[in-house]
Amino acid sequence: MRILVLIAVIPIIFILKYIYGKDKNSEPRELLKKIFWFGVLTVIPVFILEVSLDNFFSTDNYSNYITLFLSVFFGVALIEEFFKWIVVRYFCYNNKEFDEKYDAIVYTTFSSLGFACLENLLFVLFYGAGTGVLRAFCAVPGHACYGIIMGYYLGRAKNSNIIKDNNENKYLFLSILMPTILHTLYDFFIFTHNLWFYLLWFIYIIVLFSISISIVKNESNNNKFLINKVRYCRNCGKECNTNYCTYCGNKNL
């Protein structure tokens, strides 16, 4: 039992440490714990809704790909991504700690992997260590990727809210839509039970993981404070709204 729990939890911890470590101005751990545990709790309403809608949005019809895609979109992906999103929207979006673009990626990844942690634990306990090892390299990183994409757009929504450029609602919408589409594609390729779609799935996850890692690195290295006023470097006095000065290289801003 203990080994199975470790197999289920270790990939979650590894990814969270990576995302957290990329944040040069780390978020309060108490806030991150709250997001994570509420992410865990979202499994409950997600399970209830998915079971309740199972007959209406059935994924058992493999002959009609359009029906299958829509069933996965509305019956699985949208439900899961919405509840992950609502945790961050409620606890973080208006929180004073949300003052940098990269913060959004940290929050959404913690929420996503909170959900994935309990889901993964249940899968491993029911289906064994082999399932846990497989999911450590596909399903768990997949949930992290959806969270990263969600955070990418949520950070832009927050920035739009601050600078009042009328794009906030667009980015909020995209912060749910894009991870839902990506999640749908992941499940759709598997649920078709078709060899060619399995090959597409394999290519897809490589591309998805690569793009997500690239976003994390780029957003971390070019992180910006979400403020509506100009900031200046304490060292050289030049205008600088990032975590480090591009003129003198000072990182203590």
Work out the count of structural domains: 2
The pLDDT mean sits at 90
- What does the radius of gyration come to? 19 Å
Beta-strand portion reads under 5%
Order of helical and strand elements: HHHHHHHHH
- The secondary structure category is mainly alpha
- Cα shape: globular
Segments where pLDDT lies below 50 for 5+ residues?
A: none
How many DSSP E strands? 0
Give a short account of the largest sheet.
none
Give the N-to-C terminal Cα separation: 48 Å
Helical stretch tally: 9
The proportion of residues forming helix, as a percent range, comes to over 70%
What would your notes on this structure say?
It is a single chain. The chain has 253 residues and is mainly α. It has helices spanning 2-21, 29-41, 43-52, 65-91, 101-127, 129-136, 139-163, 168-191, 195-221. The longest helix has 27 residues, at 65-91.
Name the descriptors.
single chain, 253 residues, mainly alpha, 2 domains, 9 helices, 72% helix
Write a concise synopsis of the structure shown.
The chain is mainly alpha-helical. The protein has helices at residues 2-21, 29-41, 43-52, 65-91, 101-127, 129-136, 139-163, 168-191, 195-221.
Helix/strand layout:
Layout: H1 2-21, H2 29-41, H3 43-52, H4 65-91, H5 101-127, H6 129-136, H7 139-163, H8 168-191, H9 195-221
Helix pairs in contact: 1-5, 1-6, 2-4, 2-5, 3-4, 4-5, 4-8, 5-6, 5-7, 7-8, 7-9, 8-9
